[in-house]
């Protein structure tokens, strides 16, 4: 089992990166905003996979939703960067 303090620290870092991404989005720095969103999303994915490591159905749902969001981020990047 992973240390709960490490999970809390990862959650805090993920939320801070999300806020930084929102700030960059407001400043219209799209590449930086998308980068921070993607890193925050990846950290959240790790946290959820650790929390639900014994529940295969939940892990599949989390990973599929992660893939859908990553595809949406890539599409948004190409649409907004034109």
Can you lay out the helices and strands and say which pair or pack?
Blueprint: H1 4-26, H2 30-51, H3 56-80
What percent strand?
under 5%
Contiguous low-pLDDT stretches (5 residues minimum) are: none
The first-to-last residue Cα distance is: 45 Å
Number of helices: 3
- Indicate how many domains the architecture comprises: 1
Supply Rg.
14 Å
Shape: flat
The largest pleated sheet is described as: none
Q: Report helical residue fraction.
A: over 70%
Strand/helix succession: HHH
Classify the secondary structure makeup into a structural class: mainly alpha
E-strand count: 0
Query: Would you tell me the overall average pLDDT?
Result: 87
Compose a concise summary of this entry:
This protein has helices at residues 4-26, 30-51, 56-80. It has 82 residues and is mainly alpha-helical.
Q: What does the model show?
A:
- Keywords: Membrane, Transmembrane, Transmembrane helix.
- The chain crosses the membrane at residues 7-28, 34-53, 60-80.
- It is a single chain.
- The chain is mainly alpha-helical and 82 residues long.
- The chain has one domain.
- It has helices at residues 4-26, 30-51, 56-80.
- The mean pLDDT is 87.
Key features?
82 residues
